[in-house]
C-alpha cells in the first residue's frame, strides 16, 4: 500500500469509527504498513494530540500484534526462550526487592532516630524491557532507536513492572512479582505451559496488548531500577509558632468562615449575649482544627457578616483562636462570651458531637435562664 502518512492522513483516521479503522487495518494494511504508520505517528504527530487521541497509536499496534500472532507457533526453542525470559523477570524483581529491603531498613532506622532531614520516604522498583536495535548511524546496538521497537517501548503503560514500598509495607504479601500462589499459566497459552509457573510480570506484559509473541521473544535486555525519595516537609509557612497552639491568621479565619456557613446561628435573644454566635451542630470542628469552637460576632452593630465571625475555643478557659485580629468589643462583653462557653461547655460539646440537636440546645439555654 502506498500512503503518505501526514497530518491529514491521521486526522482522517481519527475521524473514523472504531469499526472503520479495524476494517481498514485488517484489509488494507500489511504488518510493514502498520509499523511505518506507527513510527511516523509516534515521531511526528503523536506529541501534538491530546490524551484521548493517543488511542489511535494503540489501535495501530494492536492490529500489528494480531497480524503477527496469526503466524506464531510454539516450537521447543520458543518455549525454552520464553521460560528463560519468565525466570529473568522474576529473578530481576528478586534482586530489586533485596536491594529495596536493605534501603528500607537503613531509611527506617534513620527515620526513627529523628533525623534532621528525613520526615518520610518511599522506594520505587521498576523493570523495563528493551529490544536492542542497530543504530543506523553508529552500527551499534541501542535500546533507544527510531524503529518499531522504540515505539513499542515508549507506548508501554507507566505501571508496567513497577512496585512501590511505602507506608511501612514491605512483606511477602506485597512482593507480587515473585512466585506466589497465583500462577498466570492460563488464558494466553492454550495449555502450552500448564506444568510451569508463569509470573505476574509476563501477565502484565501480555495485558498491554501491543507486544506480539515475536516481540516478547526478542526482549534481550531488562533494566532494573530501585529509586528512593527522601522526603522532608517544611510546614507552617507564614503561620509562625502560634500555629502549634491551634491559632489561625485572620485570612485563614475568613476562609474558614466561608466554608462553615452551614453552622447554626444563635441569636442574641437565644443566648442572652450582646452579639450573635455561630454554633457547631454537625461536627464541623473536626475539619478545621484541634479545638472545638463556636464563632462570635466581633462587634455589636446590627449588620450580620458571617465572614467576620471570630473563632473561640470550647473549653473551661476559652481562648480566641485568631492571631492579632481586631475585635470591637469591650472586655466585659468578651468576658460574657467566655462565661457563656465555660458555663455551657458540656452542652456545646454534645451539640458538636450531634448528641443533642440545635433545638434541644436552645431549650436547655431557655431553662437555664
Q: Summed up, what is this model?
A:
This protein is α+β, with helices and mostly antiparallel strands and 369 residues long.
Describe the structure.
- There is one protein chain.
- By secondary structure, the protein is α+β, with helices and mostly antiparallel strands.
- It has 13 helices and 9 strands.
- It has helices at 7-14, 18-28, 31-45, 55-69, 76-112, 148-154, 200-207, 213-216, 250-259, 268-271, 331-343, 345-352, 358-368; strands at 120-130, 133-134, 141-142, 162-165, 221-231, 264-266, 277-279, 293-296, 310-313.
- The relative contact order is 0.09.
What structural keywords apply?
369 residues; alpha+beta; 4-stranded antiparallel sheet; 3-stranded antiparallel sheet; 41% helix; elongated
List segments where confidence is low: pLDDT < 50 over at least 5 consecutive residues. none
Q: What is the CA-atom radius of gyration, in angstroms? A: 33 Å
Give the CA-based shape: elongated
How would you name the oligomeric state of the polypeptide chains in this document?
single chain
Roughly how much helix do the residues carry, as a percent range? Answer: 40-55%
Average of per-residue pLDDT values: 86
Strand segment tally: 9
Taken as a percent bin, the fraction of beta residues is 5-15%
For the biggest sheet, the summary is: 4 strands, antiparallel
The figure for the number of domains is: 3
Spatial sequence of strands, sheet with the most strands:
6-7-8-9
Structural class: alpha+beta
The SSE order reads HHHHHEEEHEHHEHEHEEEHHH
The first-to-last residue Cα distance is 94 Å
**Count of alpha/pi helices:** 13
